[in-house]
Amino acid sequence: MTRKLIFAANWKMNKGPHETEDFIKSFVSNIKGEDLTCEVVIAPPFVSLSKLNDLLHEGNHGIQISAQNCSQFDAGAYTGEISALMLRELHVKHVILGHSERRSIYGESDEVINAKLTKALENNLKPIFCIGETLEEREGGKLEGVLRTQVTDGLKGISDRELAEVVIAYEPVWAIGTGVTATTEQAQEAHAFVRSLIADLYGEDAAAKIRIQYGGSVKPGNSGELMACPDIDGALIGGASLDAQSFFEVIKNGLVD
Ligand code: PGA
Fold first, then answer.
1. What is the pTM of this model?
2. Packing angle between helix 143-154 and helix 110-122, nearest 10 degrees?
3. Which of 218, 223, 242, 250 most suits a substitution to test ligand 1, by most atoms within 8 Å of the C-beta?
4. Would you please indicate which residues are annotated as catalytic (active-site) residues?
5. What's the average model confidence in pLDDT over 107-135?
6. CATH of 6-254, one of 1.10.260.40, 3.20.20.70, 3.40.190.10, 3.40.47.10
7. 163, 206 Cβ separation under 8 angstroms
């Protein structure tokens, strides 16, 4: 089974419309003439989505747009929230859901994340569904239990057909923004386990097809060895995606066998 690698830039709360424009200008010159055999996704803050869409539309660069969150509700009295339908209107294709920062800082539970996944899929957005354990959980021998709960509860009620639109991002919380990357062995082991959870829930075929990104301090220097692991199908990149050259190098180095 060959799965197309998918690299997604998670800019978090960085880059308004002006910086988005500067980034795209350099990134487009980086990828010009390159035959990238992968999917490339950029997730800017909400306020830069429209600008990103205009910039990408001009040149048809094959870069896809993602949001970093969406509401679990359709519309109404939810001050500060953005609906999946509104994102569709801006030509957004993906949405990052369940990121550890949403879980830990904003208290999003597996139930809330499940409701958001359901709403995103109902509106034809492709979720990048994040899961991952804290250092305390890993050291306490709870890795598998935590991942099982996050996957099972997060995907509750999601059909086989809907699962085909989901990308999972395994991001050990202790590796996010810390400069500490999981070793390739640790990452591969967790990815293989997540794939086995999907096989239990949806069958071997679905498990063989689903893409599982790795996230947590991915940079140009480690992307090649991570992407060489059989169960790693791309990356969700925070810090190293803020600079066009380094995001490009993460992708380029990740595509080398
Ligand atoms: P990082 O972030 O690459 O800066 O560790 C990854 C993420 O949070 O998605």
1. 0.97
2. 40
3. 218
4. 99, 171
5. 98
6. 3.20.20.70
7. yes
